[in-house]
Fold this sequence. Notes:
The complex is a heterodimer of chains A (309) and B (370).
Chain A lengths: L1 H6 L2 H26 L7 H19 L2 H25 L4 H23 L5 E3 L8 E2 L17 E2 H19 L1 H11 L1 H6 L4 H27 L2 E3 L6 H11 L4 H23 L5 H33 L1
Antiparallel strand pairs in A: 1-4, 2-3
Helix pairs in contact in A: 2-6, 2-7, 2-9, 2-10, 2-11, 3-4, 3-5, 3-9, 3-10, 4-5, 4-9, 6-7, 7-9, 10-11, 10-12, 11-12
Chain B lengths: L1 H7 L4 H20 L4 H13 L2 H26 L7 H18 L4 H30 L3 H21 L33 H18 L1 H11 L1 H6 L4 H28 L10 H11 L4 H24 L5 H15 L1 H9 L1 H9 L3 H12 L4
Helix pairs in contact in B: 2-14, 3-4, 3-13, 4-8, 4-9, 4-11, 4-12, 4-13, 5-6, 5-7, 5-11, 5-12, 6-11, 8-9, 8-13, 9-11, 12-13
Amino acid sequence: MDILHNLFNLGTLVAGIRIATPILLAGLGGLHTMQANILNIGMEGMMLFGAFSAVLVSYYTGSIIFATIAAILVGVLAAVIFGLFGVKFKCNIIVAGIAINLFGVAFTIYLLRSIFHVRGALSHPKIVGFPVMDFPVLSSLPYIGELFKGHSIIVYVAFLMVFLVHLFLYRTPKGLHIRSVGEHAEAAASVGISPDRIRFQAVMISGFFCGLAGAYLSLAQTRMFVENMVAGRGFIALAAIYFGGGTPVGTMLAALLFGFAEAVSLRLQTLGFPSQFVLMTPYLMTVFILIIISYVKKVHSQKRKYEIA
Amino acid sequence: MKRLSQIFGCNLLRPMLAIGIAMLIGTFIILLSNQDPLFAYSKMFKGAFGGFSRITESIERSIPIVLTGLATAVAFRTGVFNAGVEGSLYLGAFAAFIVGHYVVAPSIIHVPLTLAVAALVGAAWAFIPGYTKAMYKVDETVTTILLNYVAILFTAYLVAIPFKDMTAGSQQTPLILDTAHLYRFLPPSRVHIGIFIAIFLAIFLYWLFRRTIWGYNFNMTGMNPHYANYIGINVERTMINSMLISGAIGGIAGAVQIMGILHRFIDQFSPGYGFEGITVSLLARNHPLGILAAGFFYGALQTGATYMDRTTEVPKELITSLVAIIIFFVTAEGLFTYTKQNGAFRKKLENIPGVRKLLQEGVDRNGHST
């Protein structure tokens, strides 16, 4: 019982929220591309560019606002490269994603070593991080108030974004365009929507969120840049999107679940248990879900065939 | 030139152009970092090809890349985007450790047995995404990428707890037996007979694609699954078969690295051989013999980059960045049709001596595009 209490308490939940935030942010971006029927595996690279430029600008200007803007701009820039080759020049979109990831890992290390002449990691007192705050009202609630206390400001922004993205996707014309291009590109084109243009815009939106997610990693979760610091979170975000069925709220729940799983595994590690099995659960669960969804779809379509016949 | 492009079955213009563009961009980047690009590139070249020890290191580095490249190509040919060679590689490598460490047999049995078990394990792992792709249309790219992490974490657990070498500080297993080693035939270098396994598999796949019904089915399914189905090919079966072969070669790639170089399983031993395989396969347009060349090119680039890193102020990551740029330009179908429509650009290209011939060759070879 002691162990269970050690694993499942408010502290783990709070840690889970922090771990979930970058996954959520990247996931919110990636679900735009998923809704536009683009398999975006380049989020990893976009996040890395965001993380690095955030640290770079924070170091030189000391301004967290400039750093955030830079991270977002560079994230979008990386997305533009990805979109240019993946959408406009008709590279295989998966290949474009692989290339942007490769480029992100290698080029940020190159810049780290040529600009700062350090290997591995850069931490410096001149790097300014995001401010920490308590969420008004909710943080004064008894017991669960702890969940809304002492997070970096971006954490709250990320969770508010869930609702904004929901509104954008389901309540605005642009959101409808994105979804319709994903559902049936030819049909969308027949009513005057340019599919490639919409796809490109969806890719740029994903760059925006990935840049922000990168800034969170380097200026909120830590206050440094570490080589390849995204470490697969882009792919966990991808898993979260699929796990959540491509909706903003679903993605949030999936991100929280994965974040919590990782928080538990970190606890397990300190208790001397092998953490690897907990760490693999997000991946395994997502693969299972994907298989089940596709299986159900197939059974359904077969049934329909019989009914028609 | 004509013969070369015929052997490799793809036109060489685009990769060459892509490499040229990447090197140009690299030159600018190096200049911006206040370094001498010519010096850096010459050091890189020297690091890759300058002398026996450098060349053998390039070869040694390229063996696993060629194998993962071949593994990737089999699936790509069938239109299955297997990004999971890395997972097969890890599991195959671990299987190779198990057989290499616990089974006692003379070398002549031990080596093939170890390779065979690694291939089986790799194939079994690739079967999961292959089967679900073929039967239920589950996106194989997503499942293979996610399952990679499962495989890597699983071996990380095995090497951290049940099979850890207690005398070592880092996460690694004990050594495999001498009888399971792949013979190093060019001492003092570590080049081992795994290279012949790679060459043999490349030729085997070339033969398979060209001369067998299996290969025909692979190609047809890859080009147009509906048409393949229409002419009576069992598309599902073909996809699963290609994933099995892909996974098996991936497993062998891992085993070869353990048996030839490391002689034990080390946690996180792969610097991303699986993904390097994807790159190489793309560069060679999934052509087995092209992959031999592209794999060696990639291995040489990496050893050259490491040498450049040691001897100049230019970090080796520059080269990996350039590889990403090369991938972009090699695979950008739309970019080159765009420039082809743009007659002025094509005329300019044709005015460069030698390029005209390559352009024409590309048209001849593919019938329609350059």
